[in-house]
Amino acid sequence: RTLPTDFPSDFLWGASTSAFQVEGAAHEAGKGVTVADLRSQKSKYLDTSVSVDHYHHLEADVALMKELGLKSYRFSISWARIFPHGNDQQVNQAGVDFYNRLLDLLVQNQIEPIVTMFHFDLPQSLVEQYNGWASRQCVADFYHYAKTLFELFGDRVKYWLTINEQSLLANVPAMNGLQASDTREMRQLGEQSNYHMFLAQAKVYNLCHQMLPQAKIGPAVSYMTTLPYDHTSSDVLKSKQLEDLIGYIDMDVAVRGQLPSYYLRYLQDSQIQLVTQPEDEAIFQTGRADFLGLNWYSTSIFRLNQQANPKMLDGVISGVEKVRDDRIINSQWDFSCDPKGLRYALQKVNDRFPNIPIIITECGWPDADILEDGQVHDSQRVDYLNDHIYQLREAIRDGVNVISFNPWSFLDLISVNDGMNKRYGLVFVDRDNQSTKAQKRYKKDSYLFYQKTIVNHAKNV
Ligand code: BG6
């Protein structure tokens, strides 16, 4: 067996976004209200009603993708733009038209669409009807939504992603619109939702294979390199448990078709009981993913600390604290820049699921970029991309089957936690948290760097 020496010639060089973070037009053209819209109204940063107005800049944005040389574009469809209440009898035609226009433009420009069905923006009506993912009814409604997407767009979409970062949604149930009177109840709701999301995806993997035999489908998993602070077995073990419960759980269920034993043990220890049905086991067994989408940004270092404030990942990361190590470059938002961490992480996924195709669905560097004379010198992002692409190539040479790289993000968008203060884009969008301005687009240095990289790698292979 000969190993590849470079990126494969059909490698999909892409970039990534999500609907509520770029589209805007949140209350236009028949779209229903989502959990993300409501969260945005409560925060002074996250203004989904305008976002970066991709909805009204579609042609110009795709032209920028083409000029950049993108071979793929990973974006999400807003469930509530198709079904305003999540489970309506009829589709919202204006929403269908919007995604038809986007897909047609991508196809015309030879850009492969990689489509996420659900990225943090559950239709709020489903929360009001039955508590969203905490109810088993959501499995049926997601299935119907997915079936509709396959019927409407399956002729142009070969790569489908089901749910973005399910483990985060399970651990922060408020992101799915859930409320509870205490932490215990919240964790119960979070894990029951988790179960329903697993089940819904297994059913949808199966459906995709029946309806679109040429298409491929998988989850978009939150995955970081997790390292122990101390070389003691307790720290090493704890960091492995975190890695399992935050990163691998979504991969294990999608590839192996059952809930892993470390998760069952975790539920038992947390005294959480899931409501299941006898037929579920067979659903998990038969519904498997074809590839893994990985959202990988950085390395985190943990040490045991019984006093630590568990913060947002409450249950799973209780008793640990995240440690900043200055030997790794850190951004002001606690992201580290650790390119070899990416190669290591990819090797580990390949060890666990040999030769599984991997799409890097997110990877990126946050910064408070500044526009000066029409230019943005985002040199740290250029270094981040350069070094991560180098290590990605090393991973491919190691034998890891990575088929696509989609940095986060194609253009500046509203960050989930920090609005426009924290930018990830290759394209700068001229707006800030205070004013939406005219949303004019500017190519950053990272855009020009990535453009050259795509050309050079295409030449090399
Ligand atoms: C990923 C999400 O978790 O991280 C994105 O899929 C998000 O939607 C990204 O934007 C970065 O997080 P943040 O909070 O900086 O936007």
TrEMBL record:
InterPro entries: GH (IPR017853), GH_1_N_CS (IPR033132), Glyco_hydro_1 (IPR001360). Transmembrane segments: none annotated. One of its GO terms (molecular function) is hydrolase activity. It holds the Pfam family Glyco_hydro_1. The keyword Cell membrane does not apply. Keywords: Hydrolase. Coiled coil: none annotated. Signal peptide: none annotated. Belongs to the glycosyl hydrolase 1 family. This is Glycoside hydrolase family 1 protein. It comes from Bombilactobacillus folatiphilus.
